[in-house]
Here is the input.
Amino acid sequence: MAPRVGHLLETSLYVEDLDRAQAFYQRIFGFEAYLRDSRMCGLGVPGDGVLLLFRRGGSTQPSPTPTGDIPAHDGQGNLHLCFAIPVGELEAWMRHLAAEGVAVESRVTWPRGGVSLYFRDPDGHSLEVATPGQWPSY
Amino acid sequence: MAPRVGHLLETSLYVEDLDRAQAFYQRIFGFEAYLRDSRMCGLGVPGDGVLLLFRRGGSTQPSPTPTGDIPAHDGQGNLHLCFAIPVGELEAWMRHLAAEGVAVESRVTWPRGGVSLYFRDPDGHSLEVATPGQWPSY
Here is the structure.
């Protein structure tokens, strides 16, 4: 029997240009910057989450802290993340993405009734915003 | 002004052996399998989240649905995810990982008082479980 988990706290993307990526996530999502250094940026996601943006190749060595090392990690490719949005915000998201010049690559309606919009960040990562009605828990 | 976001809904890992990865996440975290096919597995994370495990190379083409395509994505490398855990479950997590033969690679205590345990999944992805006291929002 596994001990309890509260929620998904952090997820990571690996980006070519940290300034460009941070600007995109702040402009498109309004996420607050909690932490920024030469290596990474930590952005607050509503619901007590954190989106970590790492400069590609900047976390391939352990990162020391006073109490222990943060282990090495790194990623390539075009990863996938999804953010939940309220159903009443879907049309606002369509308008917002259009106004910001972000192309909607696809729109999917799920059997449970949820709607997903897919678009890309400046590194080609595949982002999704989804209204409720996609998963058993959401 | 960005439209509202509710929470981080989905994050993705790309794995060599889908059976092995699914078994690890179910054994270590107790996550419920919502969806499983030859290409991917969707696991429910407490707090209305979903961890998506994709067979590496299995999502490099768009995936059709009756209403629109799920865009292509893929990833390589050892990515990083973190799950929030209650502070009272930290010692239970230490014992659980030891009992399951999962080595704790590092333990970090943060200035705000939170404690993180770092360990690896079978693909070398860098996992963390963290008690509150790490970020402004958590």
